[in-house]
Amino acid sequence: MPILLFLLDTSASMNQRTYLGTTYLDVAKGAVEVFMKLRARDPASRGDRYMLVTFDDPPYGVKAGWKENHATFMCELKNLQASGLTTLGHALRTAFDLLNLNRLVSGIDNYGQGRNPFYLEPAVIITITDGNKLTHSSGVPDELHLPLHSPLVGSELTKEPFRWDQRLFALVLRLPGATRPDNEQLGSVPTDDSAITQMCEVTGGRSYCVRTQRMLNQCLESLVQKVQSGVVINFEKTGPDPPLVGEDNSVELNRAVPDFNLQPWQSCHKLIYVRPNPKTGVPIGHWPIPESFWPDQNTPTLPPRAAHPVVRFSCVDCEPMVIDKLPFDKYELEPSPLTQFILERKSPHSCWQVFVSSSMKQNDLGQPFGYLKASTTLTCVNLFVMPYNYPVLLPLLDDLFKVHKLKPNVKWRQAFEIYLKTMPPYYLMPLKKALRMMGAPNLIAENMDCGLSYSVISYLKKLSQQVSGTCRCFSLMFSTLVLCSRT
């Protein structure tokens, strides 16, 4: 169920008129309505949730949040007026806080227990602004700054105000006021040179420099395609580059480098698509992406988590590993220089292992938790997520079924115990579930724990209760504000 949050610039400069005869705010309102009509063509839009936030001071900037229906959203959109300052930073913080309001209650972020791509709440934030100078009651800042401190409890658990399933896009209106532009730009719409662009790129989104109505319509068509269920990951190469591969799959050390190789394939910041189950409409998964630290029962607090995990890939060709009945997760990567580079190598029968640094007790690269692999048809690249250190576990499980017939000897049990001690403890529950599905339910002792200290578990429970109370108070306060604004 995607969340579509519109953040509309309601500063005084949005009253300026365009060559269309309407104000920038009128154009922004019309863009929202057109987007909603385009989105409604997709049957998947039936589960969409719409929110509306403006540049008004908190909490007045939230015009339609978690509790408001479609009719309230449209009424609030219609009644928007432009006045005040261009407080983009504070408005963005309000938008992210609104999206994050229920996450601690639901436990969707699973702090300290691995990151589950299949447990997500995808959100697209669409900001519509005229891109004018940022203004604040204390002056005119040169750069976009989001307030560091949030009133939302638990916000200190993530370094950034956004999460890996939230992407920011911006329509920056640059429509002239006097005459219609003579030469409309064809093709892709360029990014805008404004304060919000960098913030968009950090979240895995982008900005659009809109100069005509035709370009605006083109951008809206593009944005509708961006409503995807997925999470953003930083993919970074570790170790040496791979040797070049010729057309016949032979290694070529001196072949000319193609143009795409000049692009930053070694470091990509892209989405992985998390497809919902066709029958239930809900994604299904089994294995987490590791945390970048080892859970310690003696540590009273959790280290703050980066919004986007850094997944490192090694360019050493390996053989893809799977065994019968052991579940694995497969996610398609958004097209990027990295996917293009892998596909051009035309090696669908080999893979590159992936790691998360510091996921083991030792502060190093850690053990592989999956691999990147081109599809057999060479049409896309997939991230396979497996049990942690799967090159050790899979042969053990294969022997368990094929050699020992589910009656392991002492040597096998010792090897399995050693594996369990080097695996992050939050993999115990999904591994127990997988073994139960495979027909081996009693291999792991019931008294093994998740690795978090009692104080951390208590703190997370306390936060969940506090946020639940905050949600109720916020809903009551907002309902009062809406009632007052209509009387």
TrEMBL record:
Q: What is this protein called?
A: Integrator complex subunit 6 like
What SUPFAM superfamilies does the record tag this protein with? vWA-like
Q: GO CC terms on record? A: integrator complex
Gene that specifies this protein: ints6l
Q: Which domain of life is it from?
A: Eukaryota
Q: Which classification does the entry list for the species? A: Eukaryota, Metazoa, Chordata, Craniata, Vertebrata
Query: Where is each VWFA domain found?
Result: 3-227
Write down a Pfam family by its short name: Beta-barrel_INTS6
Q: Which residues form a coiled coil?
A: none
* Annotated GO biological process: snRNA 3'-end processing
